[in-house]
Amino acid sequence: MVDGSQEEETATHDDGATRRKHLWEILGVAAAVAGVVIGLIQVWPKPAFTLQDWAKEANAVCAETSGDSEDAARAANDALSMTLSSLQQGTATPQQFFITGNLYYRMAGLQNKAAGNLSNIHPPSSRADETEAVVRDMRESDRMIYQGAELLRHVNTQYPQETVNAFSQLANTYNEKGRSINRRLVDLGARDCLPNVQAP
Q: Which residue from 18, 55, 59, 137 has the least number of CB within 10 angstroms?
């Protein structure tokens, strides 16, 4: 004859084993579901990189360099104004032209950095050709500034006005291109990336 306390102990033991078994079954099902969900996430296509995504990253890139670019452009333009004033007074020196050219080099370098950073942004699924064209045009405008800087750094001391005239032509072309680039950036949802300070 089995005593009542042994029956209770056996029933309690069976209930505990059954609960553990059910718990392991539930955990197994949960792990299987988690595995399926993780698998689906891994094969699920990523959302398209939109123009808004591109504009957000472009704004961050432009914000990173815009203050320095505007300061550099302002410093270069101020130096050029002083050099031209000295030229009119007959006191301009090759060093003034050289220093002014170096300031334009700095301006071009900062803009080149912005163009490089923009080119690293993944093109959007729509209007990718436009975003890539803006970057190409930014690089072209940078080359104009570098050319202008070279003109100033290697001024013809016998005919400095020739250098000034050549620089002015480049500056006018740069200004037009810069305005066009900034308009297109704004049209693409970004802010303007080139300085608003225009070469004289």
A: 18
Task: Give the pLDDT mean for 136-146.
Answer: 92
Count Cβ atoms below 10 Å from residue 187 Cβ, excluding itself.
11
Model confidence, pTM? 0.73
- At residue 132's C-alpha, the angle toward residues 51 and 184, to 5°, is 65
**77 with 197: CB under 8 angstroms?**
yes
Q: Which is more confident, 24 or 198? A: 24
Q: Report domain extents, the chain.
A: 1-44, 51-187
- Measure CA 52 to chain center: 14
d(CA 166, CA 198): 16
Buried b / exposed e over 59-85, threshold 16 CB at 10 Å, is bebbeebbebbbebbebbbebbeebbe
pLDDT of residue 41: 66
Distance CA 129, CA 54 (A): 13
Q: How many C-alpha atoms does 17 have within 13 Å on its Cβ side?
A: 6
Instruction: Tell me the DSSP string of 96-128.
Output: HHHHHHHHHHHHHHHHHHHHHHHHTSPPPSSSH
